[in-house]
Amino acid sequence: MSRQSSFASRLRWWRRQRAISQLDLAGRAGISQRHLSFLELGRASPSRDMVMRLADALDVPLRQHNALLIAAGFAPVWRQTDLAAPELGEVSRALDYMLAQQEPFPAVAVDRHWNLLRSNAGAVRLVEFLVGPLAPGTAVNLADALVAPDVLRPHLLNWAEVVRYFIRSVEADAAADGVPETAALYERLLGYRGVREAVSAPPAEAAMTPVLPMHFRKGNTDLRLFTTIATLGTPQDITLQELRIECFFPMDEETADILRGWVPQS
Fold first, then answer.
1. Number of H helices, E strands in the chain
2. Residue 2 above 70 pLDDT?
3. H or E element: which one contains 215?
4. Are the beta carbons of 76 and 66 closer than 8 angstroms?
5. Residue 204's pLDDT is what?
6. φ and ψ at residue 197, rounded to 5 degrees
7. What is the average pLDDT across 134-142?
8. CA 155 to CA 114: how far, in whole Å?
9. What angle in degrees, to the nearest 10, is found between the helix axes of 159-177 and 180-190?
10. In sequence order, which residues have a C-beta less than 8 Å from that of residue 101 and are 6 or more positions away?
11. Buried (b) or exposed (e) across 68-89, using 16+ Cβ within 10 A?
12. CB neighbours of residue 54 within 10 Å
């Protein structure tokens, strides 16, 4: 496939994925519909500036923004920097600060595919209580841990409800970023036993709480937690755009007291 046709097919895919017309996209990018049509048919070659304008107008993530540039024959402009690199030192320290501020409640940082990047001590204590200690350096994917049948599921009483919401969020991610890896994650999660049934099940008739808690039980201990997810507001690096900070909060005072009680006394 030539560069021109490769860019044209990607541009058509993104416009359809965003469900906007040629006329609307042309207006957003400040070009004529005729010129956009020529670009989508491969009858015209875009300039570097045109690729950037179209990617911005389509709200294409930075990773796929680079892919559009490469398809059009230009060098990528967005970097993907390791979170531990000196260039990200200030952001890394801010991340550590946020995780520390969440103590004694759990907090984690994950990438776009829910691979664990960092966690605070509260998250470690929760995991050790539910599933036991992990070997140092063990790679953890929180999506698999939540959805698979043999990790968190045995202790999550409302697993089906939680997974139904979570799978739909992964499906939305796959639609938004348009990369095979996210689509593969979605399909992998759907392949676990009972997941398709949970996703297709009708929702509860009436919500009893303002947010859906994760209700864990192990032995005589009950924990009810809800989560928030934060992202960086103005990322200009692929790693930072795909970073998510998930904080767990107690749903009741009983849970809060248990989590506080797990903190080692100095």
1. 13, 5
2. no
3. strand 214-218
4. yes
5. 66
6. -65, -40
7. 91
8. 20
9. 160
10. none
11. bbbbbebeeebeeeebeeeebe
12. 25
Q: What is the Cα 128 distance to its own chain's centre?
A: 24
- The mean pLDDT value for 239-253 works out to 97
Dihedral angle, C-alpha 115, 191, 155, 142, nearest 10 °: 10
| Residue 250 Cα distances to 115, 227, 254, angstroms | 23, 9, 8
For the record, the structure tokens of 76 come out as 């990528």
Amino acid at 233: G
Count CA atoms closer than 13 A to 45's CA, side-chain side: 10
pLDDT of residue 178: 81
* Tokens encoding 195: 């997941």
**221-230 vs 107-110, strand pairing mode:** unpaired
101 band by pLDDT with thresholds 50, 70 and 90? very high
Tell me the HSE value of 43 on the side-chain side, using a 13 A CA sphere. Answer: 6
pLDDT range class, residue 210, cuts 50, 70, 90 = confident
For residue 38, is pLDDT > 70?
yes
1 pLDDT higher than 60: no
Q: Which two tokens stand for residue 253?
A: 């005072």
Give the whole-angstrom CA distance, residue 151 versus residue 147.
8
Residues in the chain, how many?
A: 266
Do 162 and 212 touch, CB atoms closer than 8 A? yes
The residues, any chain, with a CB within 8 Å of residue 193's CB and separated by 6 or more, are: 149
